[in-house]
Recover the amino acids of this structure.
């Protein structure tokens, strides 16, 4: 019976005699040969000593011990089970399960429930009592056991219980096949149909034998049952037959797939039409979820989404945790228009077919895998500066020609964090695998996420502060209170696309050092410069005032040239390299706007060759002259560019906006999770949505998302995530800071 080594529960009140009896039981259980008669006597004595003031869990322990010892004694005596023994065992376990709280003591409650199931099965095997009823009861109990079991239940224990359940099913199949041979359809049509219904349901769930053959037997039996059963005569059985038939045809291997799906959908919709969800919530959940799967396979996406949304109107308590999470992931994928996998299903697995990491505890974001992919790229002789995605590398001038990407300007350092944050949710979508995490794996992942969130928000906040600082300068310039010098160093559209990925092409180096040196030289006058956000590092006030520009960079350069007091052009080329496109444009703009006399060139020779005239050479003396003659002048603020730009534009922005638009309603309707598996899915999804919101510079949704992260993390038990409450407080503080404006990002 799998008797447990019970121990005193924290806070349980127990007198000295009860404590002594429990210790004696424990010593007996530690012996190589157990004296079940003595253990039974000790348990009975202990139960007799309990009263209304005794802690219920203590009483439950002794009833559980009594039931297990009676069962073990009967097994030890060459299976000497009697109806009296069955009644005594069931009575003891029944008392125990009444007193154990499944929420407070889930392991004890689940073990006791399983013991009840094996008792019914054993009674049936020994031919005691109403055997068919006891087999049916055993099936019902084992279904409850395996559906209530946590995904983190010890695999060996789960396997043992599943094997027991399989044995119960095999016994039931034999009984119904024997019964069917006695029922002739013409003489006993109802009995014959009910036997067909029972066999159809059993073969659909059967694990022994060939799976495809079992499904064929199932659909045959269910089709036969429905030839006799009717809604008018036997509505309950008729409805059950359609529910089982729909599920059987959904997973059927033989025959035409489209016909199987059509038959499955017909029966499932009949079931949904006649079934009131409040009458059988678990069945309603299964039926609506499977209607969603059928519609998805038939490419009826709107109908599939509607069916799953109806399924999720049922509280989580009526779902198995992993099934709830699987279908939520399926719904999210459909909202985003993503293909889940070739079978359009999600599988709950311990090790996904595409692992998130080979070492999920020490490397939860698979950085080792990223480095391995970088090495593969290097092996193909592609020069690499930094990897942002699986195929995001820097291309050398010797690489194959690639198209420039004018829509992508996300800071590369920020994008690295974003891709890592998106990884787990995207892997779930593309692999169709829902990863079951251990406590240690979850600890590493969630701590890593907290650090990534901090880095991401700090990076965005620093860029905003720098933009605010530059905008304030431009306001003073527009009012005629201050002037600025412009430093040009070649605006470079570095993001390029190749092989389905993105790349950063090489620009000219030394930008940061040049700006810092120039800013120091012209103090207290302001130095302004323009950069592509993709490769502009964290803002540094020592480098002056930065303008971040994207596809409108040419217009922004012209505005800055026109409004500057003077310009310093860093046009120095190395090893007679050809002049870059951005540099050529900037020099041409200086001539068109009549600012060549106000410009100092670090390399006047290359500028003169391009322009066909002499230009001023940069020197400290010339710089002093320019600075002394600089005078503020009033201009309209619109004649100066904005200090910051959007990071994603055009079709690529629309793509990300559609993802956010699809996932936000889904996220907002997710209830507080009631299991670790559900919480894992929600946190994966939140990491994805938060990262997309950051890419789109959408700060409005972030407070609610971080608050949801706080609420979700808080549900973990200590074994699931030891510092859950600390993380919850940290996320709640972030949400409050964003909500109140104490931290501003965009």
């Amino acid at each position: 019976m799998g008797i447990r080594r019970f121990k005193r529960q924290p806070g349980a009140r127990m007198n000295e005699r009860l404590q002594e009896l429990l210790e004696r039981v424990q010593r007996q259980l530690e012996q190589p040969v157990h004296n079940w008669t003595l253990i039974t006597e000790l348990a009975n004595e202990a139960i007799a000593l309990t009263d209304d003031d005794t802690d219920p869990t203590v009483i439950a322990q002794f009833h559980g011990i009594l039931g297990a010892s009676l069962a073990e004694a009967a097994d030890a005596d060459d299976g000497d089970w009697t109806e009296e023994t069955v009644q005594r065992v069931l009575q003891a376990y029944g008392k125990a399960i009444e007193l154990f709280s499944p929420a407070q003591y889930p392991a004890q409650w689940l073990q006791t429930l399983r013991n009840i199931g094996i008792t019914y099965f054993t009674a049936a095997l020994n031919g005691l009592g109403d055997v068919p009823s006891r087999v049916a009861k055993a099936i019902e109990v084992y279904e409850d056991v395996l559906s209530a079991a946590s995904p983190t239940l010890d695999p060996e224990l789960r396997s043992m219980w599943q094997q027991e359940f399989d044995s119960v099913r095999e016994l039931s199949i034999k009984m119904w096949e024997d019964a069917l041979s006695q029922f002739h359809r013409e003489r006993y049509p109802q009995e014959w149909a009910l036997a067909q219904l029972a066999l159809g349901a059993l073969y659909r769930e059967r694990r022994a034998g060939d799976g495809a053959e079992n499904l064929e037997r199932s659909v045959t039996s269910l089709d036969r049952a429905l030839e006799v059963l009717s809604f008018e005569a036997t509505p309950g059985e008729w409805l059950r037959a359609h529910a089982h038939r729909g599920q059987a045809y959904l997973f059927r291997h033989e025959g035409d797939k489209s016909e199987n799906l059509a038959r499955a959908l017909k029966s499932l919709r009949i079931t949904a039409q006649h079934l009131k969800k409040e009458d059988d919530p678990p069945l309603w959940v299964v039926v609506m979820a499977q209607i969603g799967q059928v519609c998805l396979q038939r490419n009826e996406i709107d109908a599939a989404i509607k069916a799953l949304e109806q399924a999720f109107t049922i509280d989580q308590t009526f779902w198995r945790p992993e099934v709830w999470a699987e279908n939520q992931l399926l719904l999210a994928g459909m909202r985003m228009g993503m293909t889940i996998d070739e079978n359009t299903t999600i599988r709950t697995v311990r090790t996904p077919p595409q692992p998130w990491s080979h070492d999920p505890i020490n490397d939860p974001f698979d950085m080792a895998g990223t480095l391995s992919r970088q090495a593969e790229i290097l092996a193909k002789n592609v020069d690499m500066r930094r990897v942002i995605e699986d195929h995001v590398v820097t291309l050398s001038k010797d690489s194959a020609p690639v198209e420039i990407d004018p829509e992508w300007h996300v800071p590369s350092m920020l994008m690295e964090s974003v891709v890592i944050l998106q990884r787990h949710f995207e892997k779930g979508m593309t692999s169709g695998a829902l990863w079951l995490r251990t406590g240690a794996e979850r600890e590493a992942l969630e701590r890593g996420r907290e650090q990534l969130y901090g880095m991401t928000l700090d990076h965005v906040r620093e860029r905003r502060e720098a933009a605010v600082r530059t905008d304030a300068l431009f306001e003073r310039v527009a009012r005629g209170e201050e002037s600025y010098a412009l430093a040009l160093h070649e605006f470079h559209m570095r993001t390029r696309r190749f092989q389905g990925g993105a790349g950063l092409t090489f620009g000219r180096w030394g930008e940061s050092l040049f700006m810092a040196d120039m800013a120091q030289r012209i103090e207290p006058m302001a130095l302004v410069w323009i950069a592509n956000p993709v490769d502009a590092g964290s803002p540094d006030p020592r480098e002056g005032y930065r303008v971040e520009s994207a596809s409108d960079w040419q217009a922004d350069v012209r505005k800055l040239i026109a409004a500057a007091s003077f310009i310093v052009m860093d046009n120095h080329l190395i090893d007679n390299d050809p002049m870059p496109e951005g540099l050529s444009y900037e020099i041409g703009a200086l001539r068109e706007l009549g600012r060549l006399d106000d410009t100092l060139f670090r390399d006047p020779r290359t500028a003169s060759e391009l322009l066909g005239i002499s230009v001023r050479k940069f020197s400290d003396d010339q710089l002093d002259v320019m600075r002394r003659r600089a005078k503020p002048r009033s201009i309209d603020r619109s004649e100066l560019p904005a200090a910051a730009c959007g990071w994603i534009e055009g079709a690529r922005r629309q793509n990300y906006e559609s993802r956010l638009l699809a996932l936000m309603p889904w996220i907002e309707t997710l209830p507080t999770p009631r299991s670790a598996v559900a919480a894992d899915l929600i946190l994966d999804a939140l990491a994805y949505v938060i990262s997309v919101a950051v890419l789109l510079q959408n700060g409005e949704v972030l407070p609610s998302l971080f608050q949801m992260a706080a609420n979700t993390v808080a549900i973990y038990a200590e074994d699931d995530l030891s510092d859950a409450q600390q993380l919850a407080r940290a996320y709640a503080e972030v949400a409050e800071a964003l909500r109140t404006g104490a931290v501003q990002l965009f």
User: Anything to note?
Assistant: The mean pLDDT is 86.
